[in-house]
Write a structure and sequence with these properties.
Layout lengths: L1 E4 L8 E3 L9 H8 L8 E3 L10 E6 L26 H7 L7 E8 L6 E4 L3 H9 L3 H9 L22 H11 L6 E8 L3 H7 L9 H8 L6 H6 L3 E10 L5 E5 L8 H21 L5 H10 L2 E3 L1 H9 L3 H8 L26 E4 L12 E12 L5 E13 L7 H8 L6 E6 L4 H7 L3 H8 L3 E13 L2 H9 L4 H16 L3 E5 L5 H6 L8 E6 L2 H17 L12 E6 L14 E5 L7 H15 L3 E7 L4 H4 L11 H6 L14 H14 L2 E10 L7 E10 L5 H7 L7 E7 L7 E2 L3 H6 L6
Parallel strand pairs: 16-17, 16-19, 17-18, 19-20
Antiparallel strand pairs: 1-2, 1-5, 3-4, 4-5, 5-6, 7-8, 8-9, 9-10, 11-14, 12-13, 12-15, 14-15, 18-23, 20-22, 21-22, 23-24
Amino acid sequence: MAIYIPCSSERAVEPLILNISSTGYYLDIIAQKLGLSDANKVLISRTIGKASSETRFYFAAPKSYPLDLSSDLLNSKVVTFGGPLNARASYICSQDIYGDSILASIGYTWKCQDLFHEDVTLQSYYRMLVSKMPSGIYKLSREAVLAAELPLTFTTRTNWRGSFPREILSSFCRQHRLLEPVLSPSRIPTKASSELSRSNKKLKVSESAEQETEYANGNGASDTDNKLGLGSSFTCAVKLYSRCQDLILECAPHVLYKKQNDAVQSACLKVLSWLNAYFKDIGIPLEKQKQLANVFDIKFYPQNFSKEVASGLSVLSFQRNETLGVKEPKSNSISILDDAVENDVSSIDIEGPDSGVCPSNGSLLSVCYSVSLVGKGELQKELLESTEEFEFEMGTGAVIPCFESVVTQMSVGQSACFYTEVPPQDLVLAAAKDSENAIAFLSSSCCLEYSIILLGVTEPPEDRMEQALFSPPLSKQRVEYAVRHIKESCATSLVDFGCGSGSLLESLLDYPTSLETIVGVDISQKSLSHAAKVLHSKLTMRSDPDASCRSIKSAVLYDGSITDFDYRLHGFDIGTCLEVIEHMEEDQACLFGDVVLSSFCPRILIVSTPNYEYNVILQKSNLTSQEDDPEEKIQSCKFRNHDHKFEWTREQFNHWASELAVRHNYSVEFSGVGGSADLEPGFASQIAVFRREFSPEEDDLQEHGDSSCLYKAIWEWNRSNLTLDKLVETSIEKDCGFSLIA
């Protein structure tokens, strides 16, 4: 079987049977199918895919040649071909192909007298088309064309699934006839932590632009790395060249990594992410292309890029709109709440008991899923893709948005079914094993049906390490620590800065306290949607007089940055910020400290963060002999979580907190959970408790006024009138697929 690709964009790509006999010449058969008199009239393209492949395009030779074949006239209009440029074949082959063509895998291999041949199906053709895009290469490497998506971040080698970014970028370059990517990793040495701890340097809220530039160029070292004594950091530059040595683009990330491999993979992923964004919107204006490139630390050369990569991309939009005569979907992006199905079909249906084991960002999920084409209003269904076990890391964008959004609402053992609009047809036909049936469905009104079973959740490394050593887990110990201070202070109002998915606020509902108002603030709408769902369910179900959370009268969740001030949260009795600041850049953590104590002014503020020195125990890096230097052993430890931007030693944390307290008229005391203050290396999670030594002036608050109302209320709950519970209209309602309206 072969594929016939007409030159005219108005005609569909079709499967073709080549009846090759043992006595006949296969090129004569191909010539006949192309309408040519004999094999002498057939031109053969370069191989497609691997060098050992015999997959090629066959097309009509030009009607006339110039006498001087070495001249540039071959590339001029002196050569008269049998038809216009075949855009589809030329795009896949990266070689100009004219007239109708046949894609076939047939020929005589090296040192073999027998004719080799294998089928080239419509699925094969569309997979070639999809593999020209960075996300397509990743999808195919995972055998999950309709579920997988190129991740947005490279977290750890252990959690990554499918081809690595470096491999994908190399494959992309080969597909587009570019030179192999030039990778230039750089090692940036830093001072040992022992030297810096004796230098008695103070933390800086921000560095000067000159320092940042010097650091980016490898001539300096950041305060954060110096303080932690990490030994060395790495960065990596990437350059792409054409085969004529023309520079197409260069990427010079400013982010530093502890491992060289992480720097290389992350830099390659930046290039791939920018290319992917371009492929998804090929009509984007040049100015916006440059703006987007700046976001990814990329500089590209439009003329060279257009010539080597962008040419022929119109084939992609052509495939989506006209190949099969199918109506184009309203949007290439998939949303679980679009009108993908008739009104009598539920958008999301989750079945099975709630096991309580739910996914969270950083978790490694295992699912079983299937994707089918479903005719609207009919019971017919065509299976496109399925797998018994598919793993991906939550929160990295490794699956399409609607897939992750639904899984977020599930617990282990539950199954879900939901429907979406049909994505670009190239993807559907690249997944479909039976192309004929798939085309029949696409020719009429249809949608995609996803069926998912959540098989398992592997918690992030930080949680696994802590649970292995501590009982109860550190997370519960931190909650109990906060509850103890709430009871001692008789606090009636609490704000949790960086509340995430609401684990602290939810846990507080299990304890009898004096709290009447609880508030959470976070910048992640996905986490806030989960928090809203859990808190709403728990507060509504526990409305009886004997419930432990009966004292709670109101609860609010806000979407906003904890480094911005909102006057509505001024003067609360207690503020918490548990295991949050390490997820921020160090200067932002310092800024948060200043904002919360100078503007929010809680009576008590509890801040916890990992003790970097304790990682020796968590990671089982115990000293093997008395000669080993403890500080050198500490330097070899990793951060507890890939998302941590820094982790402070006890001395660094104490210095930061003490300086804050002095600046803003607070007292501060230090404690922790997990471990002991009297034994090295101290607590696993170190805690600072700030106490206000003055009452905030009313005039100071009035100066801010309504102009400091920067947060957006996502969810509000009030016990006095449960019928007024509401979910504020935001994009969260679309993302999470549930409504909390009572």
